[in-house]
Amino acid sequence: MKMQQILSLVRRAVQDYNMIEDGDRVAVGISGGKDSLTLLAALRAMQRFYPKKYELEAITVSLGFEGMDFSPVREFCDKIGVHYTIVETDIGQIIFDERKEKNPCALCAKMRKGALNSKVDELGCNKIALGHNRDDVIETFLMALLYEGRIHCFSPYTYLSRRKIASIRPLIYVPERDVKGFAKREGLPVVKNKCRADGNTSREEIKNMVKKLGKRYDHFEDRTFNAIKRSYIEGWRTDESGLSQ
Where are the alpha helices (DSSP H) in 17-100? Predict the structure, then answer.
């Protein structure tokens, strides 16, 4: 997928859910994966023409895993003119070596979010952009249904009143296959995830299930995503003026 196509979907999501306003300082959470790097590239490109002016910061919370080198990401950020910060942590050691968590993902996400929010505050940003794509939306919805017995999904726009920070997800209209194609086409400096749980999680199980359903039922992903948009899950419905309800 070309940048123009990515930008079209990102801009539509930003407008549909009023994700960016004039004067925003947006911190992009960079894991080193294809999604967050695609998001950073798109938001940087969109700065050139989007009518509402905003600033960008890029932040990586390093979990301390050996073999994860973020220097190519730093070079990429320097190339496109975005300030880049790496937050060094021992989260990986705490979860796997000290606590020996059997289901590490939830605690890891909580600790990573705390470290990210603290750096966002320090840098004076008022919004955090996260790289969840359309497939992530569908998978999260199905995980809540199958594992928790509830109709739920993260919101495109969430305001954290305690911290006075909003989290936004501008990639929600972009299918994962298109993110992969864009990252490959643009030669984005993807950093391989060295987490011990990578590829062996409940999300990976659901991801494989979605692939099978997509092959068996025509337009499964499109219909599921559109059902989420039409549902009464908090933050997903939009009125005719494009404002989220």
Answer: 34-46, 71-80, 91-93
pTM for the full model?
Answer: 0.91
Do the Cβ atoms of 135 and 221 come closer than 8 Å? yes
A 10 A CB-CB count for 35 gives 23
Which CATH number is 56's domain given?
3.40.50.620
pLDDT tens by residue, 153-172: 999 999 988 888 999 999 99
Query: How many domains would you assign to the chain?
Result: 1
| HSE-up (13 A, CA, CB side) for residue 154 | 22
- 148 within domain boundaries: yes
Note whether residue 190 is domain-resident.
yes
- Looking only at Cα atoms, what is the longest distance across the chain? 51
CA–CA gap between residue 80 and residue 114 (Å, rounded): 27
Residue 168: give the domain boundaries: 3-230
DSSP bridge partners of 159: 166
Strands 157-160 and 165-168: antiparallel
